[in-house]
Amino acid sequence: MVRIPHDTNANSAVVKHFTAFLESKQLRKTPERFAILRRVLMFTRHFTIETLRQDLEQEAYHVSRATLYNTIDLLIEAGVIVRHVFNGQQPQYERATGLTHNHLVCTHCGKVKEVRDDGLIAFMNTRKYNAFNADRYSLTVYGMCSTCARKIKRQAAAQASKQNNQVKQHNTSGK
Ligand SMILES: [Zn+2]
Ligand SMILES: [Zn+2]
Asked: 54: exposed, middle or buried (C-beta count within 10 Å: 0-12, 13-18, 19+)?
């Protein structure tokens, strides 16, 4: 595991780290790679390749999809970002530093919410694993968001009242 500087505000340290990473791999330090990194560092939430591409386009910065995918892979390998695949959705990415939040994934609408659980963080800090130096953890909790729960409840209520009305109509027409 490549450790990157833990000061999340120090974007210049991340750029330095990525530069050293490219040099160590004898990869070219192209302006495209650094433009992508700069944009990636601006995200405070999850992003997809598509949102990243759109944001770069908005800045009139055109990079090919191949370059985008290739650079994302390098940023993952360098430990700058991590990839999440929730419930078969398209991959989402986020900064790797300080990744100690939980992801609540709604299996109905696919919405992903981030929550911090201090109790779990404290617990995880006490965990020791044999021959392993833990750096961060990721926990995904699957379930149903309150919006979907409300929607399903409303639909069930509407369905019930419809059936109720049908029964009433049936009863009155039967008389
Ligand atoms: Zn939902
Ligand atoms: Zn997250």
From this structure: exposed
Tokens for 97, please give them: 């530093």
Query: How far does residue 158's CA lie from ligand 2's centre (Å)?
Result: 36
Is 99 within 8 Å of 136 (Cβ atoms)?
yes
Tens digits of per-residue pLDDT, 118-149?
A: 999 889 889 999 999 887 888 899 999 999 99
List the shell of residues around ion ligand 2, using CB closer than 5 Å.
94, 114
CATH number of the 11-144 domain: 1.10.10.10
Break the chain into its structural domains and give their ranges: 11-144, 146-175
Measured CA to CA, the distance from residue 96 to residue 119 in angstroms comes to 21
Our measurement of the distance from residue 17's CA atom to the centroid of its chain's CA atoms, rounded to an integer in Å, reads 23
Task: Please give the span between the terminal C-alpha atoms of the chain, in angstroms, as a whole number.
Answer: 78
Which residues have C-beta within 8 Å of that of residue 115, sequence separation ≥ 6?
Answer: 101, 102, 104
Ligand nearest to the CA of 148: 1
Q: Which phi and psi angles does 30 have, rounded to 5°? A: -75, 150
